Amino acid sequence: MYVCLSVIGVSFCGFGMLCAAGLAFLLRYKAQDGIESKHIIGLMTLSEMKKMPVTYWLHTTGLAFAAACWICKQDNLPDYLEWRYGYTMTEASYITGTSAMMFILSPFFTIVLKKFDCDGVMVTLVSILMIPLYVLLGFCQSVNVYAIALLDGTFCSLFSLLAMQIAVMLCPANYVGTLSGVLYFVRNIIVALAFVAAGYILEKHSLTNLTKTMDGYKNFFLMAIAMSSVASVLW
Questions:
Q1: Cα separation of 171 and 42, whole Å?
Q2: Taking the CB of residue 103, how many other CB atoms lie within 10 A of it?
Q3: Confidence (pLDDT) at 215
Q4: CA-based angle 184:190:191, to the nearest 5?
Q5: What are the tens digits of pLDDT across the range 47-76?
Q6: DSSP H helical segments within 35-53, as ranges?
Q7: Which of 107, 115, 149, 181 could disulfide-link 98, Cβ–Cβ 3.0 to 4.6 Å?
Q8: What is the separation, in whole angstroms, between the first and last Cα of the chain?
Q9: Chain centroid to CA 213: how far?
Q10: How far apart are CA 29 and CA 25, in angstroms?
Q11: What pLDDT shows up at residue 22?
Q12: C-alpha distances in angstroms, 87 versus 50, 90, 141?
């Protein structure tokens, strides 16, 4: 079964790469002002990138902070649930996966969001609503973790849809691909730094008692709250 799933996964990845390569080739040609002739779109230069408005860089940084916070939280959540609530690793993994499963509803969220023409306000609101979830998860033991996971997945799904749509609107049409790559580059750097910080804060290799462990996770969630707050301020 695992071999079959691996083959399917590799096949889809390969097909996706072929589609991306074909799309990149086709996008080098476009019609301009109704003229049937085609012309080649040049690559974006560093000087042109420097001319991008400040709003693009603020949005990119805010998206990177919010995404890094969520990814880092997802990675450390199973261990946290196991330590604090006494779940088995399997149960903790199911709860953690509940958040990611909410992304399945993205097509429905997209239809709903079309009825609202205020993406900037919505993405700021959603990013602000994610902050209390980290507070409840890190400092309120009586909270229902399943409900938090569902809300977290819903808000993150909405945030991803809105943030990427705004990023595309901020980019010149000719350079959407290049600037999206820059966005993911910045995001991945901040994700890496967030993981380094989490490893330093939690010190999992030396965790032996519950009190010290919970103190480490409280500091970790304080970091998550701070990163989410920075993202909200940047928007």
A1: 15
A2: 14
A3: 82
A4: 85
A5: 777 778 888 888 888 888 988 888 888 888
A6: 46-50
A7: 149
A8: 45
A9: 27
A10: 8
A11: 61
A12: 50, 8, 13
Angle, vertex CA 203, rays to CA 80 and CA 215, nearest 5: 55
- Token readout for 177 is 């691909």
Name residues whose C-beta falls within 8 Å of residue 74's C-beta, 6 or more positions apart in sequence.
96, 99, 100
Q: Which residues of 4-30 are buried (b: 16+ CB within 10 A; e: fewer)?
A: eeeeeeeeeeeeeeeeeeeeeeeeeee
Return d(Cα 62, Cα 229) in angstroms, integer: 9
188 is written with which tokens? Answer: 């991945």
Supply φ then ψ for residue 204, to 5 degrees. -60, -30
Each residue of 197-209: pLDDT tens digit? 888 888 765 656 7
Q: Are 157 and 109 in contact (CB under 8 A)?
A: yes
For the chain, list residues with pLDDT below 70.
Answer: 1-43, 204-208
Query: How far, CA to CA in Å, does 95 sit from each of 85, 89, 228?
Result: 12, 10, 21
Q: Which domains does the chain have, with CATH numbers?
A: 1-41 (no CATH), 44-234 (1.20.1250.20)
